[in-house]
Amino acid sequence: MTKISPSILAADFSKLGEDIASVENAGADLLHIDVMDGIFVPNISFGMPVISSIRKNTGMFFDVHLMISEPIRYLDEFKKAGADLITVHVEACKDPEKTLRAIRELGLKSGISIKPCTPVSEIRALLPLCDLVLVMSVEPGFGGQKFMPIALDKISELDALRKELALSYEIEVDGGINEETAKACTIAGADILVAGSSVFRSDDRKAAIDALR
Ligand code: DX5
Ligand code: ZN
């Protein structure tokens, strides 16, 4: 079954603990945590202190999406804060291979992400080092944007490639996921759907998560 990873970027930060508990109780499979540095993307979100605070109150799997320049500098600190999986952008790393190896050496799951304009060919050689590939279906930086269909071709390509190369990475898609786009992504081969607005802006979070599945 398709897994759902609600993005806390769309939560109410004044009651973040309650919002996280609500999606945990509603059956979310992972918790998507968007970290932005104002350099790799034109927005700033939050960092380690927020992650370590929420780590104390939930056992959810922390799916940390780093939209920061040269993430290799901070991997250890994100591990200490409570990350289970760290995804980095290929466009943000001077040495993506070294970065992915460093994530695994910390005992964490490793993910690589590509922006809407980056082709799958850019990460092909890195795939054996990845537990997850995150296909961005919006330009990273903000929640609430419209889904870009170009992501669907990349999901299908990655799905075909993992069979061809006998790899077992999961495929995650992020940005503009609603009931309609969720279905298209699942059909294309996505395993994990990130959803910010469509989950946190809904009064009935269980219904919202079930609808995406
Ligand atoms: C965008 C973030 C997304 C975002 C998704 O840079 O990576 O995770 O929060 O938000 P929605 O689901 O509202 O498009
Ligand atoms: Zn994200």
Task: Describe, in plain words, how this protein is organized in 3D.
There is one protein chain. The chain has 213 residues and is α/β, with parallel strands linked by helices. The protein is built from 8 helices and 8 strands; from the N terminus they run βαβαβαβαββαβαβαα. The protein has helices at 16-25, 48-55, 75-81, 96-105, 150-164, 179-188, 197-200, 205-212; strands at 3-6, 31-36, 62-67, 85-89, 109-114, 132-136, 170-174, 192-195. Strands 1-8-7-6-5-4-3-2 form an 8-stranded parallel sheet. Strand 4, helix 4 (96-105) and strand 5 (109-114) form a beta-alpha-beta unit. Helix 2 (48-55) packs parallel to helix 3 (75-81). The radius of gyration is 16 Å and the shape is globular. The relative contact order is 0.17. The site of D-xylitol-5-phosphate has 21 residues, from strand 2, strand 8 and helix 7.
Please describe the structure with a list of short key phrases separated by commas or semicolons.
globular; 19% strand; 213 residues; eight-stranded parallel sheet; binds D-xylitol-5-phosphate; binds zinc ion
| Total beta strands | 8
Distinct ligands, ions and cofactors found in the model: D-xylitol-5-phosphate, zinc ion
| Residue fraction in strands | 15-25%
Helicity, as a percent range = 25-40%
Radius of gyration: 16 Å
Assign the structural class, choosing from mainly alpha, mainly beta, alpha/beta, alpha+beta, or little secondary structure.
alpha/beta
Distance between the termini: 7 Å
Low-pLDDT runs of 5+ residues are: none
Strand/helix succession: EHEHEHEHEEHEHEHH
Major β-sheet annotation? 8 strands, parallel
Overall pLDDT metric: 98
Shape from CA axes?
globular
Number of H/I helices: 8
Spatial order of strands in the largest sheet: 1-8-7-6-5-4-3-2
